[in-house]
Backbone:
């Protein structure tokens, strides 16, 4: 179904004809996707499908061969990742990427490094500690001493400290216990309900589709399916390939 004029006006992220190559290998082969204001959009697929590569291009950390990425209506090809963060585009990377030798509080303050509103930063720090009480209990602890689940919470809280308009999450449940996975998705749903627009890359297809408004399926560098997330939960192709049914 083609996008309407209203949809296009509400599009915060638009990717068209995106091609990314590593040497002679084309990892992303001309994909199209969009994320509209206020949506939670899931990008699912197997390992090696090109999902993380796509996120790296969107965040300005990986050059691409062809195509266009537009954020808030503007091409980002000439913008650095630090400029995108300042404009409200933040990412929680696969593997968390916390600053291991800094405390939890110091990690959170690093998330607000583009901001100059000291009162707002203090207020957001307290809000993160309220959202993630386990971090408050360990505020002066070095991030490298946290469990995997606690580090994931810290990485998400650090990204939220930038007050993102669009938050990209790359495999937030990877390597976590079932209890921590459920906690992560509780936070994802809460953040979405607060009006933050989300693009979620996740191998746990069931949880991703249950949380999302819309979804894309990526296979071997191509978008092979897209549509309402709930409909995908009932699609026999998705159920067979990604839900183990």
Residues:
């Amino acid at each position: 179904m083609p996008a309407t004029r209203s949809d296009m006006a509400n599009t915060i992220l638009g990717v068209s004809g995106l091609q990314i190559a590593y040497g002679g290998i084309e990892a992303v082969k001309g994909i199209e996707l969009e994320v509209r204001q206020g949506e939670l959009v899931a990008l699912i697929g197997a390992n090696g499908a090109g999902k993380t590569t796509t996120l790296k291009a969107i965040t300005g950390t990986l050059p691409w061969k062809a195509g266009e990425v537009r954020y808030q209506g503007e091409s980002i090809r000439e913008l650095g990742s630090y400029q995108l963060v300042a404009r409200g585009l933040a990412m929680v990377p696969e593997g968390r990427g916390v600053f291991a030798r800094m405390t939890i509080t110091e990690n959170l303050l690093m998330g607000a490094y583009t901001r100059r509103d000291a009162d707002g930063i203090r207020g957001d720090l307290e809000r993160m500690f309220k959202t993630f009480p386990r971090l408050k209990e360990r505020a002066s602890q070095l991030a490298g001493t946290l469990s995997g689940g606690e580090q994931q919470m810290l990485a998400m809280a650090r990204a939220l400290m930038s007050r993102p308009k669009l938050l990209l999450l790359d495999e937030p449940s990877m390597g976590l216990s079932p209890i921590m996975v459920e906690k992560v998705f509780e936070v994802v749903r809460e953040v979405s309900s607060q009006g933050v627009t989300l693009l979620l890359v996740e191998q746990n297809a069931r949880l991703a589709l249950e949380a999302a408004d819309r979804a894309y399926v990526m296979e071997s560098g191509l978008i092979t399916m897209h549509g309402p997330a709930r409909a995908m939960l009932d699609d026999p192709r998705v159920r067979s390939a990604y839900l183990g049914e």
